[in-house]
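cron nightly-structures :: item 1 of 1
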Amino acid sequence: MLKMKFWHTGAAQAFTLLCATIAVYLVVTGVVSPWFLLAWFVCHQALTGFGAIGAHSLFCHSSYKTTPFWERLLALGGTLLCIGSPIQWAAGHTAHHDFADTPQDPHNAGDWKGLFLGRYVKPQRYSFRFSRHLVADKFHRSLHEMALLVPFGFAVALVVLGLIVSPTYWYTPVLFFYLAPLFTALTAGAIHNVVAHDANGPKDMPWFFPFMPWEWSHRSHHENPSNPNKAYKYKWLPDPSYWVIKYIKIGRAHV
């Protein structure tokens, strides 16, 4: 029987905070090149992109169809964010849309708890009925059960890569290509949860573009959640996730 899994997101945010601190120390003290900060930034954007393109637009809102290859790649990439499987994320985010800014809203937090608990402020509001289209899929059920093993396995693979490429600096790939970017990605998502709604409801946040260019147009998205272009009302600041979606989609999903 499937069960929701919440504890590992907070644990990942705490552990990767330590990793990000070590990464900054290595750059500041000259142990590694400042160019690794660019790798950190790129991997941060890639991780949040997996969440926006896969977990959000595809698995939650079924905004488009794509091939099985891209579906599985996006599912695995989104799971690397340690926010749970597509099944779990879709369950919470669908409920968020249905009950936004009410006591039933599972992951909108207007106070400090949202920064530490991220999307799981009200885990009791998650229900598999909100993601039953994914629960029926064997691949997604298996991925849900392995939601912690996927990021752990990826981290181990990067450690092995570091040992092969540069035994002295074996920790560099896992720190700058995954763990430090994971901390900033999780923290950006948590900040988004706190500030994306106010007394007037969801709001667009152009200032948030550098941190999560995929998810800044929150009010526009709430007004038309099935539109894969979340920045459809704007010409001057785009939604990069839509560029990727146009490349990988094969049609509009009907679920």
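cron nightly-structures :: done
The longest strand covers residues 249-251.
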